[in-house]
Amino acid sequence: MASDAPNPLCHLPHFVTGEYTRNKTFLNDEEYGRALDCFVKGCADLLLTDDRGMMLMGKRKVHPQPDWWVLGGRMKAGDTVEEAAGRNCLRETGIDIAPDRWSFVCCQTMLWQFRKQAPEGNGTADFGVIMTAQITAEERSTMNMCSEEYDEFGWFVPEDLIKPDAELKLHPVLFRGVKELVAKKTKDALHLAVLKNAPDAELAALVRRLYR
Question: Which stretches of the chain drop beneath a pLDDT of 70?
Fold first, then answer.
């Protein structure tokens, strides 16, 4: 097996049966609100990192989570999760990241009491996928952050955010996303160790680190 074989844990499988044709159907606010009452919304969210290991988060000013949160937003019919992540990233940071630069972090389902769209109290049911990509120093210097839904943005050390005594208390979904992002480093190291036929002791140490 080649040493550069892709890690299957870094990707979310995408299957197309037959010939799927994308459409550009647009829902006005009332129609979209009714859709949210009936269906689970798919979201492609982002945890961007830089070459220093710092991670970007935004402090939202609108529901469903008016606090520190991942960047991102909904998927569109026909998207792969990488395409949706790239589109959301471009909208919210101005950075255009190709699909092959994205890696899968985790996914979860969510129920929210409130939402941005009227009637706000009807809430929303979401299926969220968190993706990650590392940006270059040049990309970071040219970021143009969206202010429509965020009050501020910040760069954080992921490992510090999941410590028991962390000053910033994250929403459980965000906490899990950051924890999985940190664990991804060990998963990637374990994948490479298996590919190079590393000694069992090295593999066992990585597995213990992953599940400690």
Answer: 1-6, 8-9
Q: What distances in angstroms separate CA 157 from CA 10, 47, 141, one per listed residue?
A: 21, 12, 18
User: Is the link from the previous residue into 64 a cis peptide, with omega within 30 of 0?
Assistant: yes
Calculate ∠ Cα 94-65-174, nearest 5°.
80
Token readout for 19 is: 């010939």
Query: Helices then strands (H, E): number in the chain?
Result: 6, 7
Strand partners, 107: 129
Q: Specify whether the CB–CB gap between 181 and 132 falls below 8 A.
A: yes
Reported as a single tens digit per residue, the pLDDT across 13-31 is: 899 999 999 998 999 999 9
Domains assigned to the chain: 33-182 (3.90.79.10)
Identify the CA nearest to 47 among candidates 72, 19, 13, 23: 72
Vertex 144, ends 63 and 101: CA angle to 5°? 90
SS3 175: helix
pTM beyond 0.90: the answer is yes
